[in-house]
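CHAIN AND CONFORMATION:

***
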Amino acid sequence: MNYKLLTWDTKFFNIKTGRIIPASLQENQLVSILAEMQREAFQLVYWASEQQNAYDLQAYSGMLVDKKTTFEINLQNINPEKLPLPKTEPYRSSFPFAQLEKLAIQSGVYSRFALDTRFPHEKFTALYKTWIQKSVSGEMADEVLVIMQNNQIAGMVTLTDKNGVGDIGLIAVDENFRGRKFGQQLVLDAQRWFIQHGCHTACVITQEDNLPACHLYEKCGYQKTKTEFFYHFWL
């Protein structure tokens, strides 16, 4: 099978959603798979391609929505004692959750769910609210670190240990607190947390068009390892 049903996305967006599996396809192969999925009543299809394709995607109701870029760092080369003193602390239920939701939404402004305007804006915001809710509950993250300033959440980052690979999920600094190097502090404190929990590598995925985020990770020692070209097809 060259595609699969995405059960969670189908339920959340209330449209039958699937994903094309092969990362490399000739145009005739792509057309054939899309036609088959259309016969199966799929309405939305994702495709992560290993290269940017020159196909006339509009002819197939498709568009390039994201250049998903992976950054990685070898944590074994980092001495945690040389990292700056931490400014973060674990999120606690006494902290204002509405501010955490606001930051989660800000973290997704470059995401494909925000840039593809065929998604209702309220679905985009609901998606990121769900993500942070499940992160705090421990379902989608092992830890949520925050920077507090005058009883306000100035920044946050969600962290997961995936079998020795530390993963940054959501990260954002409130627009009222930018320019204070809080983003860099969040990334470095994340590195400390990963090292303390035995991770040997850390990774983060962002959008290539999100230049501030890309520059931040490179400044913190991350290196770009992979770029995927993400397409949406509305059938």
Remarks:
- Residues 75 and 191 are 7 Å apart (CA to CA).
